[in-house]
Amino acid sequence: MKKEKPKYKQIIDAAVVVIAENGYHQAQVSKIAKQAGVADGTIYLYFKNKEDILISVFQEKMGVFVSKLEEILTQEIKASEKLGLMIESHFNLLANDLHLAIVTQLELRQSNTEIRMKINGVLREYLLLMDKILVSGMENGEFDPSMDIRLARQMVFGTMDETITTWVMNDHKYNLVELAPKVHHLLMKGMRSEERGL
Question: Which of 26, 117, 155, 178 has the most CB atoms at less than 10 Å from its CB?
């Protein structure tokens, strides 16, 4: 598998930097190779083309988000607390990698339909884990048991996503991670079970 080859991660990390600094369309393979410190031809030992690099970047980096969320799901805490940790973790990962934030929030949106379809497939795994938090909260009475799970998921992910995109568009002028509890508070107001008033 290509992931086990020594220069794979080096090229992925270089691609994040080059795409963030030049934009996807201007991010030539030669620039990525230079940033990674490898010959142009080496890139093609790992990737078919530039689209393959972008999809691999997303798969690789989204894998980190997924594993962090899997860790949160194993904790013996309330669903509402898991939701708070998920938001904080998501914001933390992007706040600590500005290049990745630009790639995920801006550059991936400009890619073609085929790339977006593949990216959505990777994102689906993350969203299904998020659903587990929402469902457990509905089952234990923390969240409104009658809420539409799909709409709730869109509300949670959409709010997180828009908050991060706005932060990126504003050149990271403020602390993204400090917004996590505020986002959590607003989302809980929308999903809280009225009977429990939690």
Answer: 155
